[in-house]
Specification:
The protein has 467 residues and is an alpha+beta fold. It contains 17 helices and 23 strands. The chain has an 8-stranded mixed beta sheet, sandwiched between helices. Strands 9-10-11-12-13-8-14 form a 7-stranded mixed beta sheet. Strands 1, 2, 3, 4 and 5 form a 5-stranded antiparallel beta sheet that branches. Helix 16 links the parallel strand 20 and strand 21. Helix 16 packs across helix 17.
Length: 467
């Protein structure tokens, strides 16, 4: 299972290994955003199949970035690792900030999926040449502002910032806060504090920093990062008392650091009216979408209640209160359950009580994470069949266990086949899988009679049934 580590400043070089050539064009796929917003999004990262996988906590919900592959990275394997992590931890699968170039891949991957693309969080992408030269009629306003700025402050100049400029940067923040027009806006104040903290990293080789000076006074500054062919502007601040300094800074920064980039990303506007107006005035070539994919499994899509299934000898239906004593006896039969592959007692995470296992089964279905069928012979519970590990790609795993008093009569095979068929033809799965320990010959024979063997490892034989 994936093991995540919180993003810290010490991780920057490792993350940068993936982001430096990332073609996604979105600001979230950068070291700067991960560091700047880590107190809000609490990003954590892992490496799998040659890919970077990042998980965030957004408004109390776990969401994943789309995997970022390295040179030999396998995106499909990384997605499978994310899916397995969600199944193992009971976490709803949500892949957010999906770039346009990967959306079709996920649409074809998940049969049932909710997709959204909120205008508020789209990034503003510009052609580098447009911001570098402000050529053409549509940029006459920016050129006029720059000309007025140059006429009023003819000696102002732009240059890169280095660690030796720390004192000038510190003075700038004081001057900026004295003029800050959004002092009563909590989000803006938070963003400013994050920007100041990120700027302490300006000496890192992957950050590009520059400032506009009026003599010795720093009057505007910017910090960016190159990711693939996109220059991502993380910070852009200027003193409002210097009219025209913003477009002057934008042009100078693009000219100084834009080589090798086709696009400049000035990030989203967070639904701020002033930011939106300003960023639109610079003529973006597009508003880059950030798709949010919320795959659903077949239980969520098709199953409102646990149905009743009938076979030649058996009835399969939902567990009831009256089943609790027999169900507990089935679950607590340690000798029999050594082949079950799951420790029901340890899985509770607490003491065993009379209703514990019944409640787990009920809650798993309420969350549509699993569906437990009570296997009944003449109304008496003699076992259970469980369809679980729905991967949101049309597949689920099936397990079946029969009380030892009723073993050896083919009831497990009968129940197993009934639930497999229900999953494929009523719940609309495309694949049902199962496994058994290599030592368990009884289960091997049962599965071989119902399914096709699909592989093995040191511990298990694997089986599948397809439609």
């Amino acid at each position: 299972m994936l093991t995540f580590k919180p993003v810290t400043k010490r991780d920057s070089a490792k993350l940068r290994k993936y982001y430096e050539n990332c073609p996604y064009q979105l600001c979230e796929y950068s070291v700067g955003v991960k560091l700047m917003w880590r107190k809000t999004l609490k990003p954590a990262w892992a490496e799998v199949a040659g890919c970077l996988v990042v998980v965030n906590r957004s408004h109390g919900q776990v969401v994943f970035d789309y995997p970022v592959p390295g040179p030999q990275g396998d995106e499909d394997a990384a997605l499978e690792a994310i899916e397995s992590y969600c199944v193992d931890t009971g976490t709803p699968l949500v892949i957010s900030v999906v770039p346009d170039c990967r959306a079709a891949r996920l649409l074809s991957r998940y049969p049932y999926v909710k997709v959204s693309d909120i205008r508020t969080w789209r990034d503003y992408l510009y052609y580098r040449e447009d911001l570098q030269f402000f050529a053409g009629r549509r940029y006459s306003g920016q050129r006029n502002h720059i000309n007025k700025f140059r006429s009023q402050w003819p000696d102002a100049y732009f240059r890169p910032l280095t660690r030796g400029d720390e004192a000038a940067v510190e003075r700038f923040w004081g001057d900026y806060e004295a003029e800050f027009p959004k002092g009563d806006n909590e989000r803006a104040r938070r963003e400013l504090s994050f920007a100041k903290e990120l700027f302490t990293q300006m000496d890192k080789p992957y950050f590009l920093c520059g400032g506009m000076f009026d003599g010795e006074k720093l009057i505007a500054l910017s910090l960016a990062e190159k990711c693939g062919e996109t220059l991502i502007i993380h910070i852009e601040k200027a003193l409002y008392s210097y009219a025209g300094v913003y477009p002057t800074l934008v042009q100078a920064f693009a000219d100084a650091f834009g080589d090798g980039c086709q696009w400049i990303n000035r990030e989203d506007d967070a639904a701020d009216r002033g930011l939106r107006t300003s960023k639109l005035q610079y003529g973006p070539c597009k508003l880059a979408p950030k798709y949010r994919f919320e795959p659903c499994n077949e239980l969520l899509s098709h199953v409102d209640a646990i149905p009743t299934l009938h076979t030649q000898r058996l009835t399969l239906s939902a567990l009831t209160e009256e089943d609790i004593p027999a169900y507990n006896a089935l679950v607590l039969d340690g000798e029999r359950n050594r082949w079950w592959g799951y420790d029901d007692v340890a899985g509770l995470g607490g003491p065993v009580e009379e209703r514990s296992f019944f409640e787990v089964a009920r809650q798993d279905f309420e969350k549509r994470q699993a569906i437990n069928f009570a296997v009944r012979l003449e109304g008496k519970l003699i076992g259970e069949a469980v369809l679980y590990r729905f991967d949101c790609r049309g597949s689920a795993e099936l397990g079946c266990r029969i009380d030892k008093a009723w073993a050896g009569h083919g009831y497990g095979t009968e129940a197993f086949a009934a639930v497999a068929d229900w999953g494929l033809y009523k719940a609309h799965l495309s694949r049902v899988v199962a496994k058994c320990y290599k030592e368990n010959q009884a289960s091997y024979k049962m599965l071989s009679s119902c399914m096709r063997r699909s592989g093995e490892d040191e511990t298990f034989y694997y089986f599948e049934k397809l439609v």
